[in-house]
Amino acid sequence: MSTINHPTPPLRLAMPELLVGIGLLACAGAVAWQTLAIPVSPLYSKVGPTVFPYLTMVGLVVLSLLLILAAFRGGWQPEEEKETPTDWKAMGFVVIGLLANLLLIRPLGFTAASVIMFVLVCYGFGSKHTLRDALTGLVLALAAYFGFARALGVNIGAGFIENQLNTVIDAIAGAFGA
Amino acid sequence: MNTLEQLAHGFAVAFTPVNLLWCLLGTTLGTAIGVLPGLGPALTIALLLPITYQVAPEASFILFAGIYYGAMYGGSTTSILLNTPGESATIVTALEGNKMARSGRGGAALATSAIGSFVAGTLGTLGVAFLAPVVVKFALAFGPAEYFSLMVLAFITVSAVLGSSSVRGLTSLFAGFVIGMIGVDLQTGQPRFTFGTTELLDGVDVIIAAVGLFAVGETLYMASRRYAGKDEIVPLKGSLYMTAAEWGRSWKAWLRGAAIGFPIGAMPAGGAEIPTFLSYAVEKKLSNHKEEFGTVGAIEGVAGPEAANNASAAGVLVPMLTLGLPTSATAAIMLSAFQSYGINPGPLLLTTQANLVWGLIASLFIANIILVILNLPLIGLWVRLLKIPAPQLYAGILVFATVGTYGISQSPIDLVILYLLGAAGFLMRRFDFPTAPVIIGMILGPLAETQFRRAMTISNGDWSVFYKHPLSLTLLTLAFIGLVGPHIWSFIEHRRRRGPEHVPGDA
C-alpha cells in the first residue's frame, strides 16, 4: 500500500521514475500558469472558478514531490517490468501508423487512412502478411464506416473510397427504387 | 415496500421485443469484449456513447448494462484459458482457473464461473432492487456539503485505498480533475485550461479520454512489451458439467462470494478487485482442499472470486443510480450517458425516471439468464475469439478508436488530443499508475466542484459547513482514515514483517 515497494538495501536513484516525477511537476506548472490566466470577475469572489484549479495544482505539486522522493529511494517499478526491454521498433511503427492516420484522414478520408494505419500497426506487432493485412484493414474499416458509424448516426466524413461506394449504393438503391 | 410492484413494472418495460433485442445485443457484445484482451466495458460503452443521440434512454442503458455484465462473464473465460485477465476484476480467477485448465479441468472452471456469475449476479441485482429505495431515503437528507464530502470519500477510496499505491492513484485522480476542468466554467462562463485555443472551450469529451487511455495507451503498451513472455491458450478439455463433488464445493463459495462482493460494490468505494481478493483469501482459508490451491487449481478459488466480482459489479449500480456517484470507470462513463440525456442521477431518479431505472434493473435479470446461456453452451464460439492474432486485434482497436474520436466533430485536433492522452496512458501503464481514477476524476470532479460551490454559497463562504454537519464530518473523517489508515497499518506491518505485498491493480 505504500510507495516504498523495495525495502532491499541498495536504494539507488531510479532515473525513469525521476523523469516521471519531474514531468508531473512540469504539468503542475502548466496548471498553475493556466490557473493564473483564468480571469476572475469580482462578482464571484467567494468561490470563483479558480478555487478548484488552485487545489488541484497544490495536490499535483505535493504528489509529484512524493513521486520524486520515491524515485530517490529506488523507484517503484516491479522487477519484471524493468527486466523486459522495450520494443522500440514495434512502438515506433504504431506511432508512425497513428501519425499517418492523423495526417491522411482529411485528404484521403477515413477508410484509406485507416487501411494505412492498420497495415503499419500490424507490421509493428510482427505481422509479415502485409497484403492480407491491407485487405483485412479495408474490410474492417468499411465495416466500421458503414456499420458502426452509420448505425450510430456518427458522421466521420467521406474520402474517395467512401464516395465511390456511396455512389454505387445510391445507384443500386435507385435501380431498385425504379 | 412497493419494490416488487415497481420491479413488475420494470419487467413490462424490459420484456418489449425491442428492449429484449438491445439486451441480447449488449450481452453478446459484452461477452465478446470481455473475452478479448485489451478491450473493456469502459472503452466499449464510451465508443457507443453517440447512440444516446439516436435511441430512447431505456434502450441505451439496457444495452450498456448488458455490456457491463457481459464483460464480467467474458473476462473470466480469458482468465481461465489464457491466464491473461481479460478484465482487471478477473485477475484472481486466473490464479486458480488457469491452473485448473492446465490440469484438464477447464470445463469445470468455466462452468463454476459462469453459474457462479449467474447466481451472484442475480443476487446482486436483487440487492440493487431492494437497497436502492433505502439508500434514496437517506440520500434525500443530503445537502450540498454532504454530497461534496461523500464525493471526497469516493475519490479517496477509488484512488488511494484500492490499487498498489495511494500516491500514484491520487496522481491519476488529480490528472482527471485537470482534464475535467478544461473548457468553459459553467457557473461563471470563464474559460479554464484552454491554453487560449477555441477547440478546448467545449472541454475534452469523455469518449476521447476513455479511448485515449484505454485503447491507444493499451496498444502502445502492448507493442512495447512484445519481448515479454506470451501466454498460450489452454485447449478446452473435459466436459462443461460439474461433478456432484464440484457442485458441493462451488455453491457455498458462490454465496460467500456474493455476500462479500455486493456490500463492497455498493459502498461508495466500489471496485471489483478488493472483493475478489478477499473472497479468494476466504475460500483458501475455509477449503478442505488447500493442497489444490496454486497446484492443480481449486474450484472454490474460481467460484468465490467470480461470484464476488459479479455481485460487486451489481453493487456499483447502487451508488450510481441513487447518488449519481460512479465508483468505476465504466460507471463514470454510464453517468456521462445520463448527462447526455439531460438526466441527473440522484435520489430523485427512482421517481422521476421510474421506467428507466426499473426497466434497467429488470433487464439485468434477463441479461444474467442470457449470459449464462451464451457462456456455457456457446463457449466454443468465444474460445475461437481468443485466437484473433494480436497484430490484427490491436490494429482493429485503433480503427474503432478513430471512428469514435473523429466522429465527434471530424476534427483532427480531437485525434491530436486522443494521441496525447494515449501517450499519457502508455506512460501510466508502464509506470503502474491506475487509469480508472482519471476517468472518475474527470466525470466526478466537476460535479464535486459544483456541490462545493453550492455549499459555500449557501453557507455564505463559511468553510465550517463541511465539518459542522455531523454527516459531512463523518464522511470526511472516513475519507481521512482511508487515506492515512493503510499507511499506518503498513508501517506497523513493516515493523513486524518486512516488505508489503505488491497488489496488482489497473483499470
Overall geometric form of chain B: globular
Total DSSP E strands of chain A: 0
Terminal CA distance of chain B: 37 Å
Number of domains of chain A: 2
Radius of gyration of chain B: 22 Å
Task: Using the CA coordinates, give the radius of gyration of chain A.
Answer: 25 Å
Strand content of chain A: under 5%
Instruction: List the quaternary state of the chains.
Output: heterodimer
Mean pLDDT of chain A: 84
Mean pLDDT of chain B: 88
Which secondary structure elements does this structure contain, and how are they paired or packed?
The complex is a heterodimer of chains A (178) and B (507).
Chain A: H1 15-36, H2 51-72, H3 79-83, H4 88-108, H5 110-124, H6 130-152, H7 160-177
Chain B: H1 3-14, H2 17-35, H3 41-47, H4 57-82, H5 91-102, H6 106-139, H7 144-161, H8 166-181, E1 183-184, E2 191-192, H9 206-224, H10 244-266, H11 273-286, H12 300-315, H13 317-323, H14 329-340, H15 349-352, H16 354-375, H17 379-385, H18 390-409, H19 412-430, H20 436-458, H21 465-468, H22 470-496
Antiparallel strand pairs in B: 1-2
Helix pairs in contact in B: 1-16, 2-4, 2-16, 3-4, 3-9, 3-14, 4-5, 4-6, 4-12, 4-14, 4-16, 5-6, 5-12, 6-10, 6-12, 6-13, 6-16, 7-8, 7-20, 7-22, 8-20, 9-18, 9-19, 10-11, 10-12, 11-12, 14-20, 18-19
